Amino acid sequence: MLSLINSTNHMSLRCISRLKMEKLISSWVNNQSVPESYIFPLEKRPSDVAVPTSNKIPVVDLGGVHCRGCDQAQVINQILRASEEFGFFQLVNHGVPEKTIHDVMSVAEEFFEMPVEERAKLYSDDRNQIVRVNTSIDYNNEDVHFWRENLRHPCHPLEKFVHLWPEKPSRYRDVIGTYSVEVRGLALRILELICEGLGLERDYFSNGLGSTQLMSINHYPKCPDPTLTLGLPKHCDPNVITLLLQGEVCGLQVFKDGEWMAVEALPNAFVVNLGQQMQIISNGQLKSVEHRVVTNSTASRTTIVTFIHPDNGSIIAPASTLVDVRSPPLYRAFQFQDFLSAHFEKSGDKESTLELFKL
Ligand code: OGA
Ligand code: NI
Questions:
Q1: CB of 214 closer than 6 A to ligand 1?
Q2: What is the mean pLDDT of residues 294-321?
Q3: How far, CA to CA in Å, does 59 sit from each of 102, 149, 187, 200, 201?
Q4: Does any ligand 1 atom lie closer than 6 A to the CB of residue 196?
Q5: What domains lie within the chain, and their CATH numbers?
Q6: Residue 293 C-alpha to ligand 1 middle, in angstroms?
């Protein structure tokens, strides 16, 4: 009897892990065309996968901030202008060593090159799972799936989380640990420069507003027909600031003045974009801008995303020094976790989420 129960348990476990594996695109992608459940209706398809690579997204050279006598005010000015107009900029000469960037890209690629069974072990659709692999966005509830696989986990403080991270590839924890400390330093520096530009205290984001750091590694496998699919839908990040390494393969597009523009792949550069909390705290002066990801038939694409978030319990509101009779507050005060719930409920749609927090 016991052995019967054991073998039934065994079978159902095997079944569950097969189901998880089949959700992962990499378990079937090589042997077929795009399955029906990944094909968007005509009006939602990317009408032009190859929009011209734009040179319009500003590139900020951070070299000037490290050297004595260089013009820091000019760098702050560039960051502020880019944040007001585009909500996006690229960062070069940012001080994160090339080797660290190379190592993190290659360990991320190795993770998605491992046999799919390894990733299926970490698969979960539960958002509360601390470390998880998943696919698309909301696999069990969405009409059409997105062409991406994802690994995500918190990074800060390192000693609280590192032992929970994937054990394979064997250098994963080491490489991602080094990277996440470096990238946090850079993110905080950018936040300080933004604060200076806005006239806020330099450490405005250090009391809980910038304390959560999430690593999110996206993998977009080669897609047989990129005109039918999307890697990520049009969305706006719900956090404070995002730093992205997109490697050598383009795919990120930004929605500006009613048109999609592609973000050029610059070697070793970070793509930085402001999350919606930055738009709210700056009382609308800085923009959080919608973006999406298109797929590619000739190369797979792996991106390393660092999200800087407030603590769930943080109170968010327009900064009091940026509000006066001539610029009254546009948003009410709220708890960050309420914003996150609304963001997921509205499937990442910017305007309908923000509407709930407007005055
Ligand atoms: C995101 C995102 C862009 C990319 O993860 O929120 O916008 O190119 N990613 O992977
Ligand atoms: Ni995003």
A1: no
A2: 96
A3: 21, 29, 16, 24, 25
A4: no
A5: 17-30+38-313 (2.60.120.330)
A6: 7
